[in-house]
Automatic annotation (TrEMBL):
This is Uncharacterized protein. The chain crosses the membrane at residues 7-30, 42-63. It comes from the Bacteria. The keyword Transmembrane helix applies. Keywords: Membrane, Transmembrane, Transmembrane helix.
């Protein structure tokens, strides 16, 4: 009854605005209190009420209270709101150790694919957060068959990268022995020897990372299935299949690096 009164008093457009506000507040609270898994159910409930209001408004139009054209416009508004709510990307920003913590969470939440690049001429930071990130990558790939892990690393013939190459080669060789998907390729070519953004694809989450100086790293993440599955995946596949991108096992021998 109260919903009917609100519909009569404020109209269908007003009711939509109220429910959108309720959804946004509810979605924010679910993330703040750590129950994100219920966000989809909350969105579905909100859309259910919108559908109910649309049907009620259409019935009202049939009774002569509003025109058919107005009811169709309201239904079009409903469709647009539902589409935007379901596809709008989620963007977040991180700095310092938050970057590695965010990528570690993204790895643990991924179920199918973790494809990352490392386009720097220096080894990773030696912080606890960075070590946990790389450990999470190894465990994610080794624990379950059928998962796809890829890493593209810039190839630089410098001592600063030797430890990182050795670590990745050992993991790739272990994955080969255990029939797991942990594939590493080295990207050669001076055109890439700049401080470029590194990118990671974690199912439908894309994280761009950049080192702005030796002691400062920042990143931003975008949750978008379309961005991950269409645009960034195509970019990554092109990079992966370049002639100058070779498996790490072809660049370094096991005798030279695996036992370091």
């Amino acid at each position: 009854m109260r919903i009917a009164v609100a519909l009569f008093k404020y109209g269908f457009g007003g009711a939509i605005l109220i429910l959108i506000a309720v959804y946004l507040c509810g979605a924010f609270l679910t993330r703040e209190i750590g129950v994100e898994k219920y966000e989809k159910e909350f969105l579905a409930a909100t859309l259910f009420w919108l559908v109910g209001l649309a049907l009620a408004q259409a019935a009202s139009a049939a009774a002569g209270k509003r025109s058919l054209a107005a009811a169709q416009a309201d239904l079009a508004t409903l469709a647009r709101v539902a589409a935007e709510a379901g596809t709008a990307p989620e963007v977040r920003f991180y700095e310092g150790d938050e970057v590695y913590e965010a990528t570690r969470r993204a790895v643990s939440q991924a179920r199918k694919r973790v494809w990352v690049t490392y386009l720097r001429g220096e080894g990773p930071a030696r912080s606890a957060a960075a070590e946990k990130h790389f450990q999470a990558c190894r465990e994610w790939a080794m624990r379950f068959p059928g998962r796809s892990f890829r890493r593209i690393i810039l190839y630089c013939d410098t001592p600063a990268m030797s430890d990182f190459y050795a670590m990745e080669l050992r993991t790739a060789l272990e994955a080969d022995d255990r029939k797991r998907s942990y594939h590493v390729r080295l990207l050669d070519g001076s055109v890439h020897a700049t401080e470029a953004f590194s990118v990671g694809i974690y199912d439908d989450v894309v994280i761009f990372t950049h080192n702005d100086g030796p002691d400062h790293v920042f990143a931003f993440s975008i949750r978008s299935e379309k961005l991950a599955n269409q645009h960034i995946r195509e970019y990554y596949n092109r990079l992966w299949n370049l002639e100058v991108t070779r498996p790490i096992q072809e660049v370094f021998s096991a005798d030279d690096y695996a036992r370091r």
